[in-house]
Amino acid sequence: MRLLADEDIPKPIVQSLREEGHDVLWARTELSGSTDTALLDFAEVDERIILTLDKDFWQIAVQRRAPLERSGVVLFRVHPSDS
């Protein structure tokens, strides 16, 4: 799977996905300093799914002039453990 991990995705997750054979670019190292809009545009052109913890990507994706056709966004919400 072709993925683009946002800067907020932890390095161990990026490494694990790569070890599983996924093609993962990590914004923190490969696209450092890019805006969310630029990352979304890159993902669409490069046919990658964005992995993020940032809720703003949903709004940016919805407000695009052209709908996403070759990419997507997976938003992860992490909640503290109850134990």
What would you note in describing this structure?
With 83 residues, the chain is an alpha/beta fold. The chain has one domain (2-75). Helices cover 39% and strands 19% of the residues. The chain has four helices and four strands. The chain has helices at residues 11-19, 27-30, 36-46, 56-63, and strands at 2-5, 23-26, 49-52, 72-75. Strands 2-1-3-4 form a four-stranded parallel beta sheet, with helices on both faces. α1 (11-19) links the parallel β1 and β2 (23-26). The protein is globular, with a radius of gyration of 13 Å.
The total tally of domains equals 1
Structural class given helices, strands, pairing? alpha/beta
Describe the sheet with the most strands.
4 strands, parallel
* Unreliable sequence segments: none
Rg over CA atoms: 13 Å
Strand content: 15-25%
- What's the rounded overall pLDDT mean? 90
Question: What sequence of helices (H) and strands (E) makes up the elements?
Answer: EHEHHEHE
Number of helices: 4
Overall 3D geometry? globular
Query: How are the strands ordered across the major sheet?
Result: 2-1-3-4
